[in-house]
Amino acid sequence: MSTLPKVAWIGLGIMGSPMSENLVKAGYDVTGHTLEREKLDRLTAAGGTAAASVAEAVRDADVIVTMVPASPQVEAVAYGPDGILENARRGALLIDMSSITPQTSVGLAAAAREKGIRVLDAPVSGGEAGAIEAVLSIMVGGDQADFDEAKPLFEALGKTIVRCGPHGSGQTVKAANQLIVAVNIQACAEAVVFLEKSGVDLAAALDVLGGGLAGSTVLARKKDNFLKRDFTPGFRIDLHHKDMGIVTDAARNVGAALPVGAVVAQLVASLRAQGDGGLDHSALLRAVERLSGARV
Length: 296
Prior knowledge:
By secondary structure, the chain is of the alpha/beta class.
């Protein structure tokens, strides 16, 4: 019998599926729930267990992980008679790894405390590739003791694992992460169009740029997307649009000016309005091409 905590995993999307499978590989007993039957079948094929409802999934769990798109989905699975808070046992640890507003995380922690349930907000960065390779960066908000307890589980999912402060801190750092990533992708996309229009060998140019100060994890991860015009979603424009809304609102609340971030947020929104919301966020290249008169 495993001495590892029993895990309930809610949300088996692009990120949630490989992350939950990595827990199974690490020896955890994982029971998952999501709305798509094929995702449940994938989990069971990997050695996990499928649950027909949130309530069923969390009832006997020591640790509950949620990985859903946004604040409304977190609230939908957490609250109400069929939700996590009404059906998880007292003393359980709820780890929300979704990217949501800091205010939602703080509110969830307060509501859970009344039920005897502990909470960590623990959003991640690294995209689908990072989830598959278990090399995610995990930024955590919550009590130190709960973080220490969850650390072995986090280590099965990521490589850079940092407690950033009290409840909501993880989400605040994730908002900053998404700001940096969006601005970086936009800069890379503009450079790609500039290089191509100048007649430079794009592959060679990106190789040498990647080795200098212009190099970044974003450029390394997205270089092939740019070269092949492959925008298969690892992280969708729709989700980055949501995240840019979170960072814009959070910055306004604390009085921080984001002049470049505001422009990139509008470019992300524009790309989404043009029907590209389901593409990878590297598809910001398409927006720059349109502005430059290139055929998309």
